């Protein structure tokens, strides 16, 4: 089924229409929540006076994300924001950083027009420090690489191959194993340590 995909979006909104934009963003979250594979979302503004919004949402895999992105509900929802969304940038995270991301979750109360600047309650976990990511990758890669080396050592002619050809074969075999099985397993096992709050 593939790995979870996180989409990161930055939107600049007309500052005169913040209340309307708040309701609009929450409507989008509610619509996406009804789609299979939706794993959560969160959105925040940089500050009470800010007109820049940051949003994360995650789906279980490419297929479920594309089903949402091609849906008539999303098309309708985006058209409703054309009047006050001035710019938008988005980025999909499916590479190495996606292995370490926690699903973005959260709830945001819709701000009433009579009371702008309401509280935003969002819980969006950040990726662990790079050194922890490096340790997790090494803990997965070392035993897999060592096992592979032991398995191919008795293969006739293996040691006589040029080093670049042995490296090519090793990485061709181990990269998908690391990507689809080992690293997801390692990050699940180490999740408590990877995402432990810093003092």
Outline the fold blueprint.
Elements: E1 5-13, H1 18-32, E2 38-45, E3 52-59, H2 62-69, H3 72-80, E4 85-93, H4 96-100, E5 105-107, E6 121-123, H5 130-152, H6 163-189, H7 191-194
Helix pairs in contact: 1-3, 5-6
Helix content: 40-55%
Overall 3D shape? elongated
Secondary-structure element order, N to C: EHEEHHEHEEHHH
Q: Numbering strands along the chain, what is their spatial order in the largest sheet?
A: 2-3-1-4
Please provide a written account of the structure.
The protein is α+β, with helices and mostly antiparallel strands and about 200 residues long. It starts with a strand and ends in a 5-residue tail after the last helix. The chain has helices at about 20-30, 60-70, 70-80, 95-100, 130-150, 165-190, 190-195, and strands at about 5-15, 40-45, 50-60, 85-95, 105, 120-125. About 15% of the residues are buried. About 45% of the residues lie in helices and about 20% in strands. Strands 2-3-1-4 form a 4-stranded antiparallel sheet. Strands 5-6 form a two-stranded antiparallel sheet. The protein has 7 helices and 6 strands; from the N terminus they run βαββααβαββααα. It is elongated.
Q: Can you tag this structure with a few keywords?
A:
4-stranded antiparallel beta sheet; 7 helices; about 20% strand; elongated
């Amino acid at each position: 089924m593939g790995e979870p995909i996180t989409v990161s979006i930055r939107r600049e909104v007309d500052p005169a229409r913040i209340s309307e934009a708040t309701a609009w963003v929450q409507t989008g979250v509610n619509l996406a929540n009804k789609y299979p594979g939706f794993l959560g979302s969160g959105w925040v503004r940089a500050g009470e006076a800010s007109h820049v919004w940051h949003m994360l949402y995650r789906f279980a895999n490419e297929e479920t994300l594309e089903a949402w992105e091609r849906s008539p509900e999303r098309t309708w929802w985006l058209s409703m924001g054309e009047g006050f969304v001035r710019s938008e940038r988005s980025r999909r995270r499916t590479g190495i950083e996606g292995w370490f991301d926690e699903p973005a979750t959260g709830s945001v109360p819709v701000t009433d027009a009579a009371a702008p600047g309401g509280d935003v309650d969002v819980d969006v976990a950040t990726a662990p420090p790079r050194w922890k990511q490096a340790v997790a990758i090494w803990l997965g890669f070392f035993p897999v690489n060592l096992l592979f080396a032991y398995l191919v050592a008795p293969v006739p002619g293996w040691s006589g191959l040029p080093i670049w050809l042995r490296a090519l074969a090793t990485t061709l075999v181990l990269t998908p194993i690391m990507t689809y099985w080992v690293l997801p397993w390692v990050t699940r096992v180490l999740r408590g340590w990877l995402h432990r709050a810093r003092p």
